[in-house]
Amino acid sequence: MKLQRNIIATLILTLASICQAQNVNIEQIINDVKKTYAPDKRQAILDISFRQTEGALFLNGTTSEQAAHDAIISRLDQLGVAYEDNITVMPSDIWGLVNMSVAHVRTKPGHDEEMSTELVMGQPVRILERLDNGWSRIQCPDGYIGYMINGSMSSKKESQMEQWRRSGRMIVTSLTQIYAYTSADSRSCRDVVTDLVNGCIVEGPLQLVGTRSEVVLPDGRKAWVDNDDIADFEQWSQQPFSSRQILDMAYSMMGAPYLWGGTSTKMLDCSGLAKVAYFSNGIILMRDASQQATTGTRIEAANWRSCQAGDLLFFGNAKTRRVTHVAIYDSDGFYVHSSGRVKHNSIDPKSDDYLSTPFLHAVRIAGNEGSRGISRVASHPWYFNVNK
Q1: Which of 160, 213, 366, 385 could be disulfide-bonded to 156 (CB atoms 3.0-4.6 Å)?
Q2: pTM of the entire structure?
Q3: How is the beta sheet containing 124-130 ordered, strand by strand?
């Protein structure tokens, strides 16, 4: 046994010496992988370090991306580098379904921490890490990573999620907040099971009685919802691109207060407005304005008159070109945005509704569904078993 350990130790030192002789830059390998698999820390975790002692290489750290881990290991194997792999790859088969009408996601695990985004009932999350304080680090369907209190979601195994993806589901399409009740005919405030907002997903219908359907919430509670306020989820996900649908959703929130991190019809920020409006049309956008600005087909500011309904307009610092705000274009220079409250203004300097915030550029989402940062719910593997 001792002889075997000596042989292994000698092999490690020998291969590590080869690594040094070849002048292999381990840090460069990690950085190259990071650029490919985890370029945005808001959407991917790649916190990997290395240590070399007496010719031995030790890899440590954590990543949310199995492909990133495999790429590093593959590169080292190709170069004949000996190493000890202590990298933790976060699980990809532990899930949760949001069980609140609107749930908060924060930058750190705590109620007093900054809220970075929100999710609505029935949206799936990948649970990356369970913490000891009742919180979990999660990943949202748009890739965004943050922390959610465990009570806001119901944990699901991979097998349960596969069943959920195949199940009959309904989605709330009402432009305004609605209520789910304890029975098919109750309407009293004392009979409310939960409120629901646009985009909430529930299982069902279990049965139809009159003008209502019985549905199941993600945590197993049953409730009754008015049929006029919901639609079949699979059929809804197949809807074609509609700038009218997107703008109707945005205009329905006119006057809603601005909330940093808000992405529901209750309150929202500027990029949250874009996300909610587009999700009503079955399209998932990236979370932040600076991310949304890098997607789709770019339209330069000087060509704003070529913008079409539904295009996203981006504003910010004219010198640094840093994007800080997003709006949804309508027509004739007018756009809808969330700034203080949801309202409309104009990009035309000649208009009385013109705002002087520097306009940087626009992007067209239409026709780019399926490209980077623009996903159709119907083809998203978290919602449907599209790869099975």
Answers
A1: 160
A2: 0.91
A3: 115-120, 102-106, 145-149, 135-139, 124-130, 94-98, 153-157
